[in-house]
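2024-03-11 09:14:02 INFO queue: dequeued item Glycosyl hydrolase, len=374
2024-03-11 09:14:02 INFO validating residues
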Amino acid sequence: MRQILIFTVAVSLSMISFAHAQADLKHWPKGTSPEEIGQRVAQRFIETPHTNFGKPTPPKNITYSEVCVWYGALTFAKESGNKKLAGQLKDRFDILIKKEANLIPVPDHVDRTVFGAIPLELYQQTKQEVYFAIGKNYADKQWNTPDSLKLKPELQEYLRKGLSWQTRLWIDDMYMITLIQSQATRATNNTVYIDRAANEMVVYLNSLQRENGLFYHAPDVPFFWGRGNGWMAAGCAELLKTLPKNHSQRAKIMEGYKKMMATLLQYQDETGMWKQLIDDPQSWPETSCTGMFTFAIITGVKNGWLDKKLYEPAARKGWLALLTYFDKNGDIREVCQGTNKKNDRQYYLDRARLTGDMHGQAPLLWCATALLRN
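2024-03-11 09:14:37 INFO prediction written
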């Protein structure tokens, strides 16, 4: 009888352990691990020429969506210890600055200034000064305007308030600005950059976050666009990773982040996805926002900002849901095309759904990186 009882207890404990393994962020079904998926997406990027938002024409400069994939691939290479991949990504940049310099963007807009995050990441990984100089220049110019530039009155007002002259109060900015400035602090250990990003973030929180925790695309566009909110979620996660715990703006930013995460839990569907318009039941499941939200949740769980029991299952569900849209070529489908702001619900519902677009590839790499972090 005693042996049967011991056996029963052992089996029960084993079942509990197995059940926990099926719900955590470390154990994955075959073919779905962050190591496997991250490698496939990164290799797909290595093989892909510079792209122009899916258009057949070559790009005039490196697009922000390519920057986001490049950054994700670099961080994935670091966390996975893949030196070969890191070398390939470095080579891609070296070729760019030596042979394709015409594609290097001018830091005159948030979508172009974010390019500096790539050389700053390369500097952190290699300590080569050439990358440091390039990246720091981008971060600095986001606040320091060239003398030749005549700013509109509203932009001059932003500068007087200590904000970037590239401020436009589009939700997308809160990834573009916070990433480059956070990267500059990580590379320099100078908190002036993270102070800038934090101050900017608080202004955007006050301007765009609604009572339900979600964000309008812009003050005059009252729709909860999925990827727009994804930019904010991912930007908050990147910022909070580097923002000092005693920073005067941290509590406000953390409050906005947690408020958003709590609402996102309510809108994650039974499959693990979020929609193109988050709160619109007639909208379609969209992969780039799902990836961005999943990254923000994983980062929150790993850093202890979010309740593990509540959010870890949502993160796991989001990751596995994304992979049902991932094909044998290393591309993810159902990615909303690049989107400007417009006060028109149907405009968002009718956006093209792309496959392999870098807006969707990037969050897969961010998630894979986040899952590998301790």
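2024-03-11 09:14:37 INFO annotate: DSSP finds 16 helices and two strands in the chain.
2024-03-11 09:14:38 INFO item closed
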